[in-house]
Amino acid sequence: MRNKIVKLGRSKIVGIITLISIAISILVYMVIGYLIEGNIAITGILIAIIVSLIMAPLISWYMIGLLIKVHYLEIEMRTLATYDSLTKVLARKAFLTNAQNIYQIHQREKNILSILYIDIDDFKNINDTYGHKIGDDVLKSFGKILQDNKRESDIVGRLGGEEFAYILPSTNNDGAEQFSNNLRKIVNSQTIQLNNIDLTYSISIGVSVLNNNTIDLETLIHQADEALYIAKHSGKDCTIIYKHESKKR
Predict the structure, then answer these.
(1) Topology at the third CATH level for domain 92-248
(2) What is the pTM for the complete model shown?
(3) By CB count within 10 A, which of 6, 86, 123, 227 is most buried?
(4) CA 216 – CA 99 distance, rounded (Å)
(5) How far apart are the C-alpha atoms of 155 and 96, rounded to whole Å?
(6) How far is CA 218 from CA 136, 170, 224, 228, in A?
(7) Is the dihedral of CA 43, 49, 53, 58 positive or negative?
(8) 237: which residues sit within 8 A by CB, 6+ positions away?
């Protein structure tokens, strides 16, 4: 109902309310006139119309305006709860909710699913050296890269700080590795303009794959995080696929 009101617009809704108010006022006057006086005076009808024309727009304009404002505030609040305001990717809670839905479908259908756990290398040093504004620019730049390179079926989110995650449905080890390495190359080619300095940055990626097993999503994400830990301690700017004996790729 509220969506229809917003779609029609404030002016049209106020006009409709005013017409309905006039019709009701005339009807009420006619009923009262017949019951009490036994006749209807034109003057009374005119008064009913004039009162409705004055009161209905004044009251309904304010009320409809308030309703539309609340509608857009709710949309804004849902957006803020769903998307990270800085990077424009899914916020942590929204990402995990979507990830769980995709995970359940793939597990039920015994399909392959890959998770990428991504960390911007030396991000603290970037903040300490160049300031948080440049750090925010790096996050914005990376968020755009993530969005521009996701497939329609993929989901990507910011888990916190400089850590991000990707869900790649129907993607095996080789596909996830290729995607990760391409993503790293794109990041390596990006620069952040800082006065006369071109700032570059890199990322490390840990990958875990759901292969017809019964592990839960939390464990799968933890495995990707463990692979990321190895990547961070293997020279950074690399991709590690999680195995019982993880090896650098």
Answers:
(1) Alpha-Beta Plaits (3.30.70)
(2) 0.70
(3) 227
(4) 11
(5) 10
(6) 28, 19, 10, 15
(7) positive
(8) 121, 184, 188, 202, 203, 204
Please report which residue ranges of the chain form alpha helices under DSSP H.
2-8, 10-32, 42-82, 92-108, 123-130, 132-148, 173-188, 217-232
Positions of CATH 3.30.70.270 in the chain:
92-248
pLDDT tens readout for residues 66-119: 776 765 556 455 555 578 889 989 999 889 988 998 988 888 888 889 999 999
Residue count of the chain: 249
Please give the structure tokens belonging to residue 195.
């006065």
How buried is residue 194: exposed, middle or buried, by Cβ count under 10 Å (0-12/13-18/19+)? middle
Residues near 218 by Cβ (< 8 Å), separated by ≥ 6? none
Integer Cα distance of 101 and 95 in angstroms: 10
Q: How high is the pLDDT of residue 248?
A: 42
Q: Whole-angstrom distance between the N-terminal and C-terminal Cα of the chain?
A: 55
Angle at CA 186, nearest 5°, toward 183 and 191? Answer: 135
Q: Please state, in angstroms and rounded to a whole number, the distance separating the CA atoms of residues 184 and 21.
A: 64
Mean per-residue pLDDT for 11-23? 85
Which residue pairs, CB below 8 angstroms and at least 24 apart, start in 10-13?
10/61, 10/64, 10/65, 10/68, 13/60, 13/64
pLDDT in the model for residue 249:
42
Q: Which residues pair with 238 in a beta bridge?
A: none
